[in-house]
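Is this the right way to post C-alpha cells for a design question? Let me know if I should format differently. Anyway, here goes:
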C-alpha cells in the first residue's frame, strides 16, 4: 500500500516551536518545585540554578510594564512568524528553523506571563563576581533563533557577492 506523501513545507517546523514550549515549561516547573524564590543552587563552576522572577523583557528592561504589554507583543510576533511560514511554504530551512525557535521561545515566556504575571528565569552564568542576566530555555531558543537569522543574512550576502562576481566576469 502506498501512502501519499505530505508536501514538505515550512509549517512542518512548528514541531520545533512545540518542543521549545514543552521543554521550557517543564524546566520552569521543575525549578519552581525545587527552589524557593531567589534561592541559588550551584551546579558546576560558573553556572548556578537560581529562581528569579522577571517582570520585564530581556535583561529585565521595562520591568514596570504590565504583563499584558508583553503578551500583546508576543501575539504580534507570533502572527508575523506564522504569516511568514504560510507565505514561504518551501525551502529557506535555516530561516524557518530560526523563526520557529523564536516563536517557541516567545510563547514559552508568554505562558509564564499569562499564568504567573512574570517570567521564571533560572540559569545564572558568572565569572568571579560578574553575573550575566539570569535566563531560561525560552530565552535561549530566542537567542539561537536570532543567531540563525544573522547567519542566514550573512550567507545570503555571501551568495549575492559570489553571484555578482560571476555576472561581472569575476570582478567584485
Amino acid at each position: 500500500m502506498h501512502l501519499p506523501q505530505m508536501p514538505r513545507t515550512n509549517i512542518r517546523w512548528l514541531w520545533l516551536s512545540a518542543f521549545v514550549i514543552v521543554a521550557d515549561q517543564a524546566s520552569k516547573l521543575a525549578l519552581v518545585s525545587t527552589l524557593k524564590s531567589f534561592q541559588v543552587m550551584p551546579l558546576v563552576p560558573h553556572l548556578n540554578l537560581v529562581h528569579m522572577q522577571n517582570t520585564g523583557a530581556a535583561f529585565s528592561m521595562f520591568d514596570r510594564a504590565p504583563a499584558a504589554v508583553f503578551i500583546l507583543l508576543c501575539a504580534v510576533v507570533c502572527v508575523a512568524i506564522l504569516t511568514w511560514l504560510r507565505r514561504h511554504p518551501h525551502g529557506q530551512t535555516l530561516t524557518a528553523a530560526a523563526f520557529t525557535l523564536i516563536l517557541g521561545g516567545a510563547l514559552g515566556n508568554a505562558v509564564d506571563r499569562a499564568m504567573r504575571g512574570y517570567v521564571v528565569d533560572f540559569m545564572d552564568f558568572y565569572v568571579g563576581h560578574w553575573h550575566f542576566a539570569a535566563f531560561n530555555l525560552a530565552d535561549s531558543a530566542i537567542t539561537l533563533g536570532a543567531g540563525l537569522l544573522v547567519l542566514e543574512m550573512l550567507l545570503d550576502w555571501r551568495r549575492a557577492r559570489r553571484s555578482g562576481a560571476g555576472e561581472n566576469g569575476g570582478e567584485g
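Format looks fine. Someone answered above. Worth noting: The radius of gyration is 20 Å. Residues 48-56+65-127+140-158 form one domain.
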